Amino acid sequence: MEKSLLRYIWRHTRRQQLFILTIVAASMVPYFLAFDLPKQIINGPIQGGGFESEGATQAYMDFAVTLPWLGTIFQFDGISLDRLETLGALSGVFLLLVIINGLFKYYINTFKGRLGERLLRRIRYQLVDRILRFPPSYLKRVHAAEVSSMVKDEVEPFGGFTGDAFVQPAMLGGQAIAALFFIMVQNFWLGMIAATMVAIQVGIIPKMRHRLIELGRQRQVTARHFAGKVSEIVEGISTIHAFDTSNYERADVSHRLGHIFKIRYDLYQWKFLVKFVNNFLSQLTPFLFYSIGGYLTLRGSLDVGQLIAVINAYKDLPGPLKELIDWDQARQDVQVKYEQVLEEFEAPMLIAPAIHTLAPKSEDKAFSPLAAVNVTIEDQSGARVAEGVSVKFERGETIAIIDNMGSGGEALAEAFGRVVWPVAGKITLQETDLLELPESVSGRAISYSGADSYFFHGTLKDNLLYGLRHAPLSTTTYTGRDATHRRWEMHEARMAGNVDYDLNAEWLDRNTTSVRNGQKDDLKNSLLAALDAVQLTSDIMDLALHSTFDPEVHTDLAARIVDMRHALRSTLAAKGLSHLVVFFEPDRYNIEASVGENLLFGTMRPGVGSENSLLDSDYFYDVLRSASLLEPLFDMGTAIAENLVDIFGSLPEDHPFFQQMITLTADEIDVYEQLLLRFKERPEGVRPNRDELHAMLRLSFNYVELRYRFGLLTPELSEKIVKARDLLHDKLPAHLAGLIERYDPHRYIALASLRENILFGKLSHRIADAGEQIRAVASGVMHEKDLYASFLGVGLEFDIGAGGRRLTLVQRQKLNVARSLIRRSDFYVFNRALPGLDRRVQNEIVKNVVDFLKEQDHDPAIIWVLSNTSLARLFKRVVVFDRGSIADDGTFETLEQESGIFKTLVA
Amino acid sequence: MLLKEEVQLLRRIPYFAKVDPCRLKLLAFASSRVSYDANQELFHQGDAGDCAYVLLSGSADIIMEAPDGEVKIGDVKGDCIVGEVCLLCDGVRTATVRTTTPVEALKICKDAFSKVLIDPGVTREVTRAFAEQLHRTTSELDRTRAGQRQLVN
């Protein structure tokens, strides 16, 4: 990239800049015509110039084209108009000019805006492109939030400047020179004075602004660091809480903000000082005119007319001059910003663009061997972690790499994954340097999974299939408006030097999945097998069962789940297990559910406040009143309160039961105690107020007879509650209707989870192993109804959050291995990929992975850097590293007998 | 059976006889009611124990697994507590308890139990009852040993 922003802009927008300059020049003609016209209108038709006699007419639009030497070549005598007509005609022309000027302005501004936005797009794209091409070691040093703040915010002003980069100085410079020239013509010496003052102004002001620019640079850097700090706080929030360092962070932030404030305040002071000097200098010139010119006039060497003409002409000079100086300020400002950004993005040894060439077609041949030739690797501090390593791996091998001392094996695996670049020697794939091979070869022939994995914000499925998205494989055909939009999109992308690959095209390469039988379901099979191998399937099933989905979108699945609901029920009945679940029935009280659930007979939108907004609504009380439930439920609440106060009243405030057993705090128990006392003292017949009602209803709402066993739910009451269901749902007001969804045995409940939808009832909590029994039966029904894959599909839609943080560490590590397993590669490199798992699970997964990959027909090599050395027995070949070089290399059996190091490691 | 009745029942159990009824109500509330069919296991010998069961109705056998098969060493019915040792110390079940009729029981978890016991007064009462029980068991054991000796001699 160019060192100077102006040059960069010129290089990419040269043609447009020249075009817009021409347009600006052309726009000057109507602009100046419009200036002259008012004078003509006033002098002519209004004041009567040229219309002195009654009925006089004037030629309108008369003109002649006269060329030097040739004389007049064309002459138009004009139309003869009287005074009123001339007024009309001239006013009409004035209006026309106003419109033309407006249109010019509109066109120029949009053109400049588009020019700027395109340049901004180009520069942002180039910066991100550079990030993609940075050598790995360089990116370890930079701060992600700082880089993103550079790409997003710091380049923003470049766009605004681009449009004015050349047009502004050309126009303003022209105006200033014209004004100066005009003064010169009036009086040479006064002109010289003006010119000198201009020279001083142009000389001094930018110098003074140097300091401003330096401050601006500091402001930019501190702001960038501040952005980095904020993101660090967000990412490290758990560490901050764990070590009670939040106040240290507060101090740090406050310190930084103080620094930024100081810089900004300095900036303001300088800015206004410069403004003051600038204004002073431009006012000084008229002072000189008045004093020196006046003196000369008094002496008689200058006539008054000339002096006034000069002073008049000077009026046009400061305007353009000031704007010109402002332009220069803006130029220096963006130039500094540009240099700043460029500095960060000028990494040595950028990956050559050719390495990243788009390759839609995967080469259908195998690459082998993968070898290290005399490789030396340094860590970030420059210490050598691997030295002079030469080793060769062929396809079909299974290799365990073990580190005795140091981390040479780990480093070598990282070099295979291109996470580090060797400082000496090279990694070769089929005799070619890995770093010179296009990534379309190296990134597909080798699948690397390290311990520190990154996941992109999106669904589990997106992340699992991420490794298959190399290039757009299909060309999507668009029609109608979409086609126009796509054409526009491509055109704009090219105009800004971006790539125009279609994001909506099919990027998923279905031919490079590990399971490949040429069938349509290769991808699905690879995915399911990979999940099974890393034992992630049951986790995903759990995610699915706890998730909700929109039945409007997945109508078919929703219908099948309702179908499964009925099938589960009849299967349970057939097996004599109906007592395990109390199903939701529209006309029956569900003894395992709370009073509130029974009344609503539906699900409330999860989240705080749903219950309160119901308990606060007038509608709810009206319903209870008309179902004559208000009083019984209030009494029930009072009885519950009495019991709870009795049980919990004497417990200390911090007793763990307050959280475990009930949803009340010790303070709330106190409140209820007070309330009960108040009720007791109250004379008969006084009605409870709304708050008291609310408090008591809240208790009775959550009451489950089978759990609380206070004996408060009579058969009559439960009957009444069931009857009130219709009443409640009949005229549910809009603000509540969105919060509650009524149960319907024949419909999918959108607000409830998949599990709740299948069960459609409550587990009998008295039966000790009801959950397990139901799970076994339900799993059978699920397979019978062929819903297994669909459920996993729902689980795969789980949003894993930024960086996959909604998954556990173990799940992330498993996912990381699984996404390699889905890909068809010649070499699979696992670099201590499962450190968070316990030994037994590690053992099972490593075995599963090796078995799974060996079952496929492409005969890959598996290279696994083991943190658990005893797993080496699962591999045919073992390479032992000691202090950064290879100590032993051989089959497991030979090493077990011969190698001392290996024996101590594995034992 | 209501909470009140459960409390009455708990009071009939020696360990809890002298505990403040308020506390017993809390313990009952913190415990859950479970039902079993005939021939189901409450717990199995060798498993880690984390709760005791108070039988409210029905009956169950206490079974020891010996190398040559199962030996019934006792039975429990209403108003009895089984598996209570694990409430006070860690350890595995020394026997299996299997229902012979449908059983209703109150499951007292160690966690809930220890939290009710936070009160020192309660602890004293319960440990004294345990100690008495231990005393009885030890003297019984001694008598059995003495009997065995005599048999051998």
Please identify which CATH superfamily of chain B we are dealing with: Jelly Rolls
**Which chain pair shows the most residues in contact?**
A-B, 22 and 21 residues
Tell me the overall shape of chain A: extended
CATH architecture label of the largest domain in chain A: Up-down Bundle
End-to-end separation of chain B in angstroms reads: 53 Å
Rg of chain A, alpha carbons:
41 Å
User: In total, how many beta strands of chain B?
Assistant: 8
Main sheet characteristics of chain B: 4 strands, antiparallel
Strand order of the largest sheet of chain A: 10-15-16-7-17-18
CATH topology of chain B: Jelly Rolls
Q: What spatial form of chain B do the alpha-carbon principal axes imply? A: globular
Helices of chain A, by number, come to 35
Report the order of strands and helices of chain B: HHEEEEEEHEEHH
What is the percentage of strand-forming residues of chain A?
5-15%
Number of separate domains of chain A = 4
Secondary-structure content class of chain A: alpha/beta
**Quaternary status of these chains?**
heterodimer
Unreliable spans of chain B: none
Looking at CATH, the homologous superfamily of the largest domain in chain A is: ABC transporter type 1, transmembrane domain
User: How many domain units of chain B?
Assistant: 1
Pfam families (chain A): ABC_membrane
Transmembrane segments (chain A): 18-35, 87-108, 176-200
Protein name (chain A): ATP-binding cassette domain-containing protein
Membrane topology (chain A): Multi-pass membrane protein
